Amino acid sequence: MPKAKQPTSKQLLSVIQTQTAIAKLGLDINAVMTLVAEQIQTITQAKGAIVELAEDGDMVYRAVSNGANDFLGLRLKMDSSLSGLCIAQNATLYCKDSEVDERVDREACRRVGLRSMAVVPLIHCDEPIGVLKIYSERVNAFKDSDINLLSLMSELIAAAMYHATKYGAQELYKLATQDNLTGLANRALFLDCLRQGVDKAKRAGLLLGILMIDMDGLKPINDQYGHRLGDEALKEIGKRILNVTRRDDVVARLGGDEFAVILSGLANQEIARKAMNRIVEACGLPFIFENVKLDMGASVGLALFPEDGLELNKLIEFADLKMYENKRIRKGQHCHS
Prior knowledge:
Layout: H1 9-25, H2 29-44, E1 48-55, E2 58-64, E3 75-77, H3 82-89, E4 93-95, H4 106-112, E5 116-124, E6 127-136, H5 144-164, H6 169-177, H7 187-204, E7 207-216, H8 218-225, H9 227-243, E8 250-255, E9 258-266, H10 269-284, E10 287-289, E11 292-294, E12 297-305, H11 312-336
Antiparallel strand pairs: 1-2, 1-6, 2-3, 4-5, 5-6, 7-9, 7-12, 8-9, 10-11
Helix pairs in contact: 1-2, 1-5, 2-5, 8-9
C-alpha cells in the first residue's frame, strides 16, 4: 500500500501560523471558525471551505471562507448529506464525484457548484458536533495530504471550542452564533433566521421586514477616544436597538458598525416604519460614558419581503441601498443645521 502523502513543510507552516492567529482571537469561536475556513481553502486550493454544526436534524453552515460567502446560514438535512453521514460514522469522508456518489445531496451540490468534497468531523468533548468541509468544482480535486491537513485544521477548531466551553454543545452553539462584543446574533445566525423567516412568510402569506442599520459616529469616537470607548458605544447601540424591538424580532451585529433586524410576521408596512423610527430615535439620544459625551446615531434602511425582493441577497441589497440614502440625507442635514 503506498504511504499516505504527508503535507509539505510549507503547508505545515500555514497550520502553525493559523494556530498563532487563533491564540490571538481568544474565545471568539465564530472568528476562529471563519479563520480556519479561510486558511484551509487557501492551503488546499479549494473553491470554498465551510464549518457546519449539527442542530436539530440539520447541518447548518455556521462559518464559511470567502469562496462560500453566499451559503452562510444554509441548512441541509443530516440524513441525506455527506456531512450528516460524517457525524453518524464519526469518520473522515471523501466524495470524488458528486454526480455519481449515492451518499450526497446531489441537488444541494449542484446549487453550491460542487463536484468533489472532503469532510472531517469536529469533535467537542468526545462527541462529533459538526464538520469542516472543503469542496471544489472539479472532480477528485483533493489529495491525501489535503485531507490530512483538513484533519489538523479541524483539531485547531476543536481545541478552541474546548477552551471556550467545556460544557455541552448547546453552550457552544450559543458562542458560535453570537457576536462576541455585543452578545447579539452574528451574521451566520442572522442569515439562518432570515432564510427561515422568508420561508415562513411565503407559506403564511405575511410580510417580513429587514432593517439594515449603520451606526453613525464610530470612527470619530475611535479616533478621538480610542477603541475601548468605541466598543462601549457599539454595545450601547446594540442595547438600544434591542430595547425598542419586539421579542420575536432578531437583532444582529453583522460586524464593524453594521447592525440588522429581522421583523417577522408583520401585519402591515406601518409596523416596520414605526420600528425604524424608534431605532433612529433611540440611537440618537445622548450617550455619556465615563463623563465623556459621545455623539452617535444610526442610519436605517428598510426592505420588505415580498415586494422589495424575493431572494435574501436582493432584500439585503435593497435595505442597504435605502440605508445609504438615509445616511446621505442625514449628513446633508448635519451640514445645513
